[in-house]
UniProtKB/TrEMBL annotation:
Domain Endoribonuclease L-PSP/chorismate mutase-like residue range list: 6-157
Domain of life: Bacteria
Transmembrane segments: none
Protein name stated in the entry: Endoribonuclease L-PSP/chorismate mutase-like domain-containing protein
Length: 159
């Protein structure tokens, strides 16, 4: 039975963006064997970050709430899917999402990185169903490129 991941994206009202241009000397995604490895994807929308700053529960100026950061992680995942498609042309070739690594720019007292990266994991589950079940790391860091609150990368198996 052929998967219908492209159709599922449309049913969810999601449209893949253009692949984000690299910020330095790297490719957005590469293929090795039957795997696609994406570079870390920021939550760029039309080439710009909708929010910047560290994730915190404090509500202080210059911080991003965990709930908003989870939404941004979802956008990172959508950008990563676009990078995967740029390499394999048809998302229906995906066998499974193997690994997700999420980086969360965190205030020193913030410990909710797994809930933030759930934004990406939940989207992947909605789009890919059982093939979207993956291993994952959610890492807190002090700063990310462009002062992004979150960054997500994928390893995807295809056939």
């Amino acid at each position: 039975m052929s998967e219908k991941f492209e159709e599922r994206l449309a049913q969810l009202g999601l449209e893949l963006p253009e692949v984000a241009k690299p910020l330095a000397a790297y490719a957005p995604a590469v293929v090795s064997g039957t795997y696609v490895y994406t570079a870390g994807q920021l939550p760029l929308v039309s080439g710009a970050l909708p929010e910047t700053g560290v994730v915190s529960d404090s509500g202080a100026a210059g911080t991003v709430s965990p709930e908003r950061a989870a939404e941004l992680a979802e956008r990172c995942a959508l950008n990563a899917i676009a990078a995967v498609k740029s390499q394999i042309e048809d998302l229906n070739r995906i066998r499974r999402i193997v690994k997700v690594t999420g980086f969360v720019a965190s205030a020193p007292d913030f410990h909710g990185q797994p809930a933030v990266v759930d934004g990406a994991s939940t989207l992947l589950g909605r789009v890919f169903g059982a093939a979207g079940v993956h291993a994952r790391s959610a890492v807190g860091v002090s700063v990310l490129p462009l002062n992004s609150p979150v960054e997500v990368e994928l390893i995807v198996e295809f056939g």
